[in-house]
Amino acid sequence: MGSESDECSTAVILGVDGGTTSTICVCLPLLPFCEQHQLPDPLPVLGRAAAGCSNHNSVGENAARETLEQVINEALSRAGKNRSAVLAICLGVSGVNHPSDQERILNWMRNMFPGNVKIYVQNDAVAALASGTMGKPHGCVLIAGTGCIAYGFTEDGREARAAGAGPVLGDWGSGYGIASRALTAVVKAHDGRGPETMLTDCFLKSLGLASPDEIIGWTYADSSWARIAALVPLVVSCAEVGDQVADEILKNAVQELALSVKAVVQRLYLAGEDGSDSFPVVMVGGVLENNKGWDIGKEVIDSILKAYPGACTIRPKVEPAIGAALFAWNMMKEKEANGQSR
């Protein structure tokens, strides 16, 4: 029988970031739980694998399960490990919005990992939060990419979310929301319902269209939300050179994104009773990345800090899949500290 030190030297933890576009799995070695031990920088990733969508709402249960199994098996294979080496796994998967969603994925994973493997299933926003807090489930994360969501955790385990309901239900601060409003503005300017805008010529040139009338056909030719969201840089560029319509669209997006964070902070009392307590706000997603002139992320941060001066904004140094693995590691570390068996 191997010693505990032998187990620790071979054991691994898995982290999965399952999105609507792609699914990533990373394999990390079991890191020491000692409080004095600093996490290595960079973290030692033993194996990494990528596949397509694992959101069961988008591709169905069978395809989602197959994708998760694929990335897990590939990451383990590239790490030179097998399933028996896994001590814990955290899956942050988009579409996990209800306990029934969690239970479904838990059942899939129990079939893959029978025995004492610790399995944690969360929304993919939790993986993004953990990527900024190095696995600690505390604070708020704002994701603004194709879609958007704000998600928060308290140190005693309470959680809350705002937005994240998709474009039909109004994720207006998202890339899709920004670009769809810009496309609408072009159509309204063309038919006389709205002011003229530089967005018209900018979109026509970029999309290779001859007339604003063709924007309607282009928009409905492909239902991909990411295809629409990819137009955000054009909206930013028009706002940067002074287009009032584009500027107003971005200001509205900033308000929506900041409002989502504020809603989570208020529901969880992350800033304390007087709003001055310190808490992390993790900023993730292409919409929040730095722009030279019109910086959406900076404007959102300024709005958050105006309401909550103690907020500590963080742009993650590691990817969400690593955040998910560190989430599992932190949960194991807490149980160890409380005298519970791994």
From TrEMBL:
<dbReference type="InterPro" id="IPR052519">
    <property type="entry name" value="Euk-type_GlcNAc_Kinase"/>
</dbReference>
<comment type="similarity">
    <text>Belongs to the eukaryotic-type N-acetylglucosamine kinase family.</text>
</comment>
<dbReference type="InterPro" id="IPR043129">
    <property type="entry name" value="ATPase_NBD"/>
</dbReference>
<protein>
    <recommendedName>
        <fullName>N-acetyl-D-glucosamine kinase</fullName>
        <ecNumber>2.7.1.59</ecNumber>
    </recommendedName>
</protein>
<feature type="domain" description="ATPase BadF/BadG/BcrA/BcrD type">
    <location>
        <begin position="14"/>
        <end position="328"/>
    </location>
</feature>
<dbReference type="InterPro" id="IPR002731">
    <property type="entry name" value="ATPase_BadF"/>
</dbReference>
<dbReference type="Pfam" id="PF01869">
    <property type="entry name" value="BcrAD_BadFG"/>
</dbReference>
